[in-house]
Predict the structure.
Amino acid sequence: MNARKTNSRKIIFITMIIIFLGAAVPLLQAGGNLLIKNAHILTITKGELKGDVLIQNGLIKQIGENLTAPSGTRVIEANGRYLIPGIIDTHTHIALSGTNEGTDAITPEVNMADVINPDDTSIFTALTGGVTMVHTMHGSANPIGGRNVVLKLKWGKPSEELIVKEAYPTLKFALGENVKQSNRPLLPGRPQRYPATRMGANAIIRRELLRAREYMAQWERYQKLSRAKNPPANLLPPRKDLRLEVLADLLRGKLLARCHAYVATEMIEFLNLAKEFNFKIGAFEHAWEAYKITDELLAAGVGISVFIDSWAYKMEAAEGIAYNAAYCTRRGLLVSINSDSGERIRRLFNEAGKAVKYGLTPDEALKLITINAARQLGVDKYVGSIEVGKQADLALFSEHPMSAYTRCDMTIIEGEVYFDRDEIIKEREAAAVKKGGN
Amino acid sequence: MRFPNKKLKFKPCRLVLLLALAAVFVFFLKLRARADVKPAYAFVNCQVVMAPGQIIEKGKIIVRDGLIEAVGPVEKIPVPPDAEIIEASGLTAYPGLISAHTNLFLEVKEQPQPQRPEDYYRSFLQPSEPQEFPDLLVLKELKPKLKTVQAYHKAGITTVVVAPNRGIFQGQSVVLNLNGENLNPMVIKQPWALHLNFTTERGHYPSSLMGTVAFIRQKFYDTQYYAQHWKKYLFSPAGLKRPEYDPFLEALVPFVMDKKPVVFQCNNQEDIKRALKIIKEFNLNGILTGANEAWRVIEAIKQSGIPLMVSLDFKAPATSLYAQQGEVARKKAENELYPANAAVLQKENVNFALTSFGLTDSSFLKNLQLAIKRGLSPETALRALTVEPAKILGLDKQLGTIEKGKMANLIFTRGPLFEDKTKVIKVMVDGLLFNYEEKSQ
């Protein structure tokens, strides 16, 4: 009996080891190996230094001078160019087949992870500007939009490999002009959608959250009854409602709210809602008037994801100021700069660079698109700075990335080169010669 | 005008006579146009491809009463005394081809397209009627035409699935034998499957792709709930409120609960993944169709083991990289990459059926030839148009090969099937013979 038992234990042990090894192998092969020599390294969190970065299996193995790599490792000569962590865009809509489910005002059941399009050429456009990660979101048409998704821009890889599972799951909210559709012409025969005012937007969100609470209570009642000794014969579970499931997850703290808002009053109202229903806010998006309410935002521990200087493009942006990002940073808020565009995304470093004009140091400005963004997305353990053990998401710039004369030469994700300017130029020249030859 | 009364007197009589004559004439015309019907046929001296790879060089096929009575080498099979002998030397007999996804005979009922710019704007903003038809039986919308049947015969196709083509929940398809233009005798399986498409509503929820995914999932969850509720209501003691009848969910019950087939139209590689996810979530008897980007998601398809029906339509989807890179890149992909879809599947040992979905009879043949040029073996092509679709349709005991007891669905060609100059000379469907030999031959 005993021998048999130990035997079966041995078998279980061995199979477990095999399973473990089987699982470990793809993990080990996940990333690339690289040695980047003689770079001006802006680590973001640990100052700057001149030297090399060794990458193994997609992770940063070593940072220092005169590093050597195992034979066969590709060596990239940086020649004193600037190496920074890959840029992170905290608010964009690229790589998706669809932006808004604009028919209903409340659509948390939709999930942007369902409609990733890895073929969207905006991914490549973003890579040319050193962007390695994006928070790609539902649009701002609805008070409660859909769930967003964080992607690494692994151009050419299948969609499921782009998703960053470690990032916070987030749900898009929106307030103000887009939600109340004040910029949409009224047509005869087409009813205006509720809400049409800012108080309406607040009220409809509140109503839905109350419904979600009631939904949670219904399920609790059902589970209690079904677990009882003699459950009622006619006991039926409540109807599964995908819309309310997601809102229930928000109330359970499993999702963070990311709220599109422009003016101070609507942000304060939303903070109050979060307090009343005890849900977490990841950040306010655009937040043009955040500079007016920094105390309240600090107290709530809510950051902002903003444009740098494109204010007054609509009524509710009239009181936006270009000092918003710099001032809020100085006040201690967690600030990131976003593109909200498939084009601006390739020059997000220029956008952050403008913050230098408005009072930040180049180091502080660079944080707006690297470590700050990573913290807002909940991935600062893995990316956002150049540190040993972090994922090797890097961008190589010809000049200091906050300089107006800089240009991104190379973009690396997990030790694999996804954009190499020299190579692309060579390819294009070869294609041009071939075309000319015909 | 002079003898109005006289004229009136005689007219009804003449009219009846004329009508009767016309009716007889039309009746004969119809008979002529339909097909020859004899008690039994014996096709002799033809090469017989019983199934892909199973060839009899000089064979004989006996057909009786719509079924194959015998098949074998010419010397081994006796000809029954009542059979009409058809000398078929120089011809090759194949099992009739099956296209398991078409919109044949379907009158397209599209919403009126906006003409002026302001109409266009309005059409997007103003709600129209929702386009959802889960309970639609496509059979009821069909008006078969002999001309179309004959055109498909010439492409070698004898059996089709006609699927509905509007909305997300499109309705329920039917399997037809192309044996004439009288609908009821054509039906093999009714309904066959529920068809879904990852499209959107216009001016209604869901108006976006992510909305569509959520909409489909919610409807499937609702169906589970609805069926559970009704079951409990009908079979448990009193004291339960009667659930409200819902025609939408009622139509879905056989597919969600009783696992009748659900066909997902996959317009690009991501649609395939979306479909696989939903099939898994609801444990559906799922089938993928369209899927002209299957070559890009081979691993996902392999792992799922979900049956695959691949259209020979090589149009690059708008979401694809190739369609975003300009006309030259798109045309190159549509000539090289997309036609190699089937060849890649063959290389990866994935079973698949080929369909003419999105194509006409002539473009189907042209594209099939291009797919073969890009590496698909004619043998796999034949399998993908006979044995595989028969299996997917659950009709592999009745269709797909030339075997004793199966439906007499045969095509006779001069030259190897799928080659450019090869012509289909005779077609037999359900034992009805159609001759397409040109008069000069």
